[in-house]
Specification:
286 residues; alpha/beta; D-Maltodextrin-Binding Protein, domain 2; five-stranded mixed beta sheet; globular; PhnD
Length: 286
């Protein structure tokens, strides 16, 4: 009993001394479902563990099936920060004031693209060739998986997707959209260039069965965002951890594994092209 009492006293002292690694409430870090759950764990788990280690407190990954679910948790305050898609960032900033924290830089630039893909054996050579065919979007709120291809079709053919394609499915994640094309479940899909390139380098089982027939203009890369009410000191610490990650041997190894050069502080103006697409579609495509 005496030993137990001493152990309890030691633990209590540590908590009172604010040794956060033992006692702090986990910081919940949201991850939007850009890739399937098992791949998400592989992609983000090491980053989140690294941040927790550097902060000296537990950091918990909160993974949701849709962008909408992640947005709701951010808006309610259950999440204080999250990896999000470019489209939801634009919407969430306007709706409840999320702020840019950092964004990854990959292949030398903080931008990415929508790839329109078909099966490698298909005779389809361009976007026009997909008219009347089946097509996969990813998530209704995805930039490269929904908004960008909708804009591309609207600008080129003055039609909404529902009147351009014969059938539309939603795969929820980009890797599943690639798989749907590789297995000829659909004739085409629009996917995130970063995820496509990552899959092609790590496990080309499905990307090798596809080809890229169109590429969008560039967009501001999916960022990490924070709520406006996040403690400024904590926000600065987390930002610094990301910004210096590439200078640390362990951090460099993690970044290399996910094909990220480094993290940078993005500009809100980098996402103006997303805003312009949304504005044009609301005005011109019904």
């Amino acid at each position: 009993m005496k030993a137990l009492a001493i152990a309890f006293a030691v633990i209590s002292t540590l908590c009172l001394a604010d040794v956060k690694a033992f006692c702090a409430e986990p910081l919940k870090f949201g991850v939007a479902a850009m890739i399937s759950p098992q791949e998400t764990v592989k992609y983000y788990d090491q980053i989140i563990d690294y941040v927790g280690k550097k902060l000296g407190r537990p950091v918990e990954m909160v993974q949701k099936r849709t962008y909408e679910e992640t947005d709701r948790l951010l808006e309610s305050g259950e999440l204080k920060l999250a990896f999000v898609c470019s489209g939801p960032y634009v919407t969430d900033k306007e709706k409840f004031g999320v702020e840019l924290l950092v964004a990854p830089q990959s292949y030398g630039e903080p931008f990415y693209y929508a790839y329109i893909i078909t099966h490698r054996s298909s005779k389809i050579r361009n976007l026009a060739g997909l008219k009347g065919k089946s097509f996969a979007f990813t998530d209704p709120k995805s930039n490269t998986g929904k908004l960008a291809p909708t804009y591309m079709i609207g600008k080129s053919f003055n039609l909404p997707p529902e009147k351009f394609f014969s059938k539309i499915i939603y795969t929820r994640t980009h890797d599943k959209a690639i798989e749907a094309v590789a297995k000829k479940i659909v004739a085409g899909a629009s996917v995130d260039s970063l995820i496509y390139n990552y899959a092609a380098s790590k496990n080309p089982r499905f990307t090798s069965q596809t080809k890229i027939i169109a590429k969008s203009p560039r967009y501001g890369i999916p960022p990490i965002v924070v709520r406006g009410d996040l403690d400024p000191v904590l926000k600065a610490r987390i930002r610094n951890i990301f910004l210096t990650m590439h200078e640390d041997p362990e951090g460099r190894e993690i970044l290399a594994g996910i094909k990220v050069d480094r993290f940078i502080v993005p500009k809100d103006a980098d996402y103006d092209s997303v805003r312009e697409m949304e504005k044009w579609l609301k005005k011109n495509i019904k």
